[in-house]
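Protein in question reproduced for absentees:

***
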Amino acid sequence: MKEKDLDRWVDRYRKAWESNDPKDIAALWTEDAAWYRRPDEPPVTGRDAIVAAWLEFADAPGETTFEYEVLGFGDGVAFVRGWTTYLTNPPGEFSNLWVIRLEKDRAYEFTEWWMEKPR
């Protein structure tokens, strides 16, 4: 796995974020993946459960902008810093940190931290 493969995965993640298409979401994960929506909570486990949980809290298409940078990558583990802006009323800005463990082109573990920027 190379950094360009990680960039493709993040691009696919963003596509799924915008489309909320169950096929786009499912294509990101291994069958037995674990998604830690917060590092201090138990994970959502299994591709089908991840798709269902994602759709439960889905953002509407066009509701956000997102930028990111790769902080580190090696041995199938990636560290990504992101910035999300919600264009909703009221608008909001978040900083994100992702730890992604990849197997080929799918994540088998994904942990995210997100912090709202004070207004």
User: Anything to note?
Assistant: The first strand starts at residue 29 and ends at 36. The mean pLDDT is 94. Residues 3-19 form the longest helix (17 residues).
